[in-house]
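Risk register update: the risk of archive-format incompatibility is retired. Evidence:
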Amino acid sequence: MERLPRNPEEADKLLLLADLLRDAALTVKEEWAQEDFSRPADKDTARILPSVRLWEATKTIETISGALVELVCEPNQRVLQILTQYFESRALFIAAERRIPALLAEAGAQGLDIGVLAAKTGIEASKLCTNLPTPTALPEHCANRFRTQHALSVPSVLSMFSRR
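Archived output:
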């Protein structure tokens, strides 16, 4: 499919977004440097809620991310990205339902052989995608990433996948 022509206004908008992104990233850096996670979680609101500046900066970054994608992606690329989000969501549902992050956590840092993971989950080894878990130094092994390790252990996330 043919690319769409771009204009100077779009280039200016791209540069403006880059400036806004840098400003927000600097705010995040400053706020992260001020956070103190040494106290117990039950007595420290900062461990539960970000500061107002940090929250606003992260929301700005999320908004800028979307604007950047819309600005630089060709329409056919963007449609394909949107269409594949269903499959990513379905894969996340299956990963949570089959307890893949928990199985990988039990395996530890060395990870789990894909064949063993397939046997434990009932998913064919050839169908297992390593997009969510991270491959380890061992061939045919995968382990949790930082995000998957924590995201799928949050009760509110798991409750979305529970069957009633």
